[in-house]
Amino acid sequence: MRTLTKEIQDKITPSMALRLLQDGNSRFVSNLKYNRNLIQQMNETMDGQHPFAVILSCIDSRTSAELIFDQGLGDVFSIRIAGNILNEDILGSMEFSCKVAGAKIVVVLGHTKCGAIQGACNHVEMGNLTALLKKVHPAIAQTPRTPQNSQGVYSYSDEVAINNVHHVMDEIPLKSPILDNMIQNGEIAVVGGIYDVETGVVKFFEHPHLEHFELEQPVAIVRKSSFEHELISTL
Ligand SMILES: [Zn+2]
């Protein structure tokens, strides 16, 4: 696995970026990983970084983005906050990642059995956590309780976690004209997904924002191009 250079980063499209993450998660689930020399990667990135993705995920100790997507130094910007909620500081971090540093994909990643989401569902109030958990309320409002999702400790909060990812994805272009513009120009894609803490699998889902990104069958699309295949195999 080569350390990303500006030249390689420039060649990566949003759909290829998604494929790189899907492949990395497949390696993780299979208990495989690229044989990286992290000291070498540290030396190769000492003068700059050219990551291909920015990933917003939860602080949960089981959901480290670099581990679950099998990425090395200089590969991804990792934004972590309880419940993977959005605020203007996080939007600023995403704008830096994409507009300044050239990342090609914004991933909003929720996870199953999320304590923060469960706390929000239970209307937990504690210190500064209260204001953070309030940011999950729109997703709770979008998630009616049903006999099916009310069984088990986590089934309702898992549905809220999914709706929370959708909500954050909706908010990104609404609250960031810079990212909205990049989405419209095809420079970046915003994708959402859920990490299953029982299986290690990240399930990416589709979103209206991506329709013009031909991501309905991302794997098939990436496989179409031998150039992309070649590039991915060199990474
Ligand atoms: Zn969590």
What is the element layout, followed by pairings?
Elements: H1 6-11, H2 14-29, H3 38-44, E1 53-57, H4 65-68, E2 76-80, H5 88-100, E3 105-111, H6 115-121, H7 129-134, H8 137-141, H9 155-175, H10 177-184, E4 189-195, E5 202-205, H11 218-224, H12 226-234
Parallel strand pairs: 1-2, 1-3, 3-4
Antiparallel strand pairs: 4-5
Helix pairs in contact: 2-11, 9-10
The structure holds zinc ion.
Structural features, described:
- This protein is α/β, with parallel strands linked by helices and 235 residues long.
- The chain has a single domain, classed as Beta-carbonic Anhydrase, Chain A, CATH 3.40.1050.10.
- 46% of the residues lie in helices and 12% in strands.
- The protein has twelve helices and five strands.
- The protein has a five-stranded mixed sheet, with helices on both faces.
- Strand 4 and strand 5 form a beta hairpin.
- Helix 2 crosses helix 11.
- The longest helix is centred in the C-terminal third of the chain and has 21 residues.
- The termini are close together.
- About 7% of the residues have low confidence.
- It binds zinc ion.
- Zinc ion (ZN) binds next to helix 6.
- The site of zinc ion (ZN) has 7 residues, from helix 6.
Compact description:
By secondary structure, the protein is an alpha/beta fold. It has helices at 6-11, 14-29, 38-44, 65-68, 88-100, 115-121, 129-134, 137-141, 155-175, 177-184, 218-224, 226-234, and strands at 53-57, 76-80, 105-111, 189-195, 202-205.
